[in-house]
Write a structure and sequence with these properties.
286 residues; alpha/beta; four-stranded antiparallel sheet; 11 helices; 18% strand; globular
């Protein structure tokens, strides 16, 4: 329930008041007078919003279940999403229906999908590459390069997970699958090709980060409709999103970039970025 109160306050600010008709919870729980209801009861209630609470809650299976119950999924939103600056239900549903594919060189994409409860429409989720130059080469013709063979190369042992994670090549780009076990190569390949065909090339956002001004310039010249490159230095380049690592309490710039996808302070309006590729600063980072 940690996020519920902040989310409720934001909804009250946006829409004037919040009247809880009921909470889906086991019978007998004391909720300060708010009645408990079942999921089936939702079909008989007149409501504007279903607020899902839970730090680790995943919205995608909840939406699938809601559809089977005849619930309007446009009224379902997760509390952590409400807490993202500049949230509105209208903006959120516009993004959800836009079928956005995020192709990022690290976990920025999957963290953003999780934070906002969006469907994973990218094959590069839970995959990272540290070679920025290769990633830029890949972006010169992403559609053609995505059709290349996804080829197993080797594995590396993770002290944290106590398993071997696989490394694959896609064209010139080497990808580490940081949540997969190298024992499951057949399943990994099946999932890769399944996810690859989910990409919406008509609405894609390409994301990377670099400390190198020259690589930023190369990225900016890529003929991509929506793109963002996070950098730790100030610049006037259009696709560059400056982030001051000191604001995030970490010396590792890559960690700062990932923090932006899941935590405050949000230094840019993530709705504008995902919907329009637009750079709207929210804070002064100096």
């Amino acid at each position: 329930m940690e996020l519920l109160n902040p989310a409720a306050r934001i909804l009250i600010q946006l829409y004037g008041e919040l009247n809880a008709l009921g909470v889906i919870a086991p019978p007998g729980i004391n909720l300060n007078g708010v009645p408990t209801i079942t999921k089936k009861d939702l079909k008989n209630l007149d409501y504007d919003l279903i607020l899902v609470t839970g730090i680790k809650a995943s919205l995608v299976p909840i939406l699938k279940e809601s559809e089977t119950l005849g619930i309007d999924i446009d009224k379902v939103v997760i509390d952590r999403t409400v807490c993202v600056p500049n949230f509105t239900l209208e903006k959120y549903n516009k993004l959800r229906h836009s079928q956005l594919s995020i192709l990022s060189m690290n976990c920025w994409g999957v963290i953003t999908y999780n934070t906002l409860g969006l469907p994973f429409l990218s094959p590069t989720i839970n995959m990272v590459t540290s070679n920025e130059e290769q990633f830029i080469q890949f972006l010169k013709n992403p559609i053609e390069n995505m059709e290349k063979e996804f080829k197993y190369q080797r594995s590396y042992y993770s002290q944290e997970d106590k398993i071997n994670h696989p490394i694959f090549n896609l064209g010139e780009v080497e990808w580490r699958l940081i949540h997969d076990d190298a024992k499951n190569l057949e399943n990994i390949l099946q999932n890769w090709y399944k996810r690859r065909y989910r990409i919406n090339w008509c609405n894609s956002l390409f994301v990377m980060n670099t400390k190198d001004p020259e690589l930023l310039k190369k990225f900016d010249r890529m003929p991509l409709a929506k793109k963002a490159c996070f950098v730790p230095f100030e610049t006037d380049i259009e696709s560059a999103f400056y982030m001051n690592p000191k604001r995030y309490g970490t010396d590792q710039f890559n960690n700062s970039v990932l923090c932006f996808a899941r935590e405050t302070p949000y230094c840019y309006d993530i709705w504008d970025l995902l919907l329009y590729g637009k750079k709207t600063p929210l804070i002064d980072q100096k």
